[in-house]
Design brief:
about 110 residues, mainly alpha, about 75% helix
């Protein structure tokens, strides 16, 4: 697959994740502090348990069809990042920072970092 097409897909997926995380963090800033911290701790604990119980799976790179077409490459990159980044530490941290520092500056900084 053409690298530019895959890059555009993965970059788009990161943009969607950052936007969602910053929006959720901004909304969480409006809630009482203690329940938000307890819910965040519970989510991290649940994530840790799932990681400890999970197993590592590998993807067979030969199973992907190599094509120069834009949409297959772009969508493959988007889906790979979009699915794998849900609940990732960077997304949770972005939401936390947005709750404390504002959604827009945090979103811009997080996207540029990714």
């Amino acid at each position: 697959m053409r690298a530019q097409y895959v890059w555009l897909g993965t970059s788009s997926a990161f943009a969607v994740h950052v936007t969602l995380a910053a929006a959720v963090g901004g909304a969480l800033a409006q809630l009482p502090d203690r329940p938000v911290k307890l819910a965040s701790a519970a989510l991290f604990a649940a994530g840790a348990i799932l990681l400890l119980r999970g197993r590592s799976e590998t993807v067979d790179a030969t199973s992907f069809e190599l094509t120069p077409a834009f949409w297959p490459a772009c969508s493959a990159g988007f889906v790979a990042v979009f699915v794998s980044e849900w609940g990732d530490l960077s997304q949770l941290t972005t939401a936390n920072l947005a709750a404390h520092n504002g959604a827009v500056p945090t979103g811009i900084g997080a996207y540029l970092a990714l």
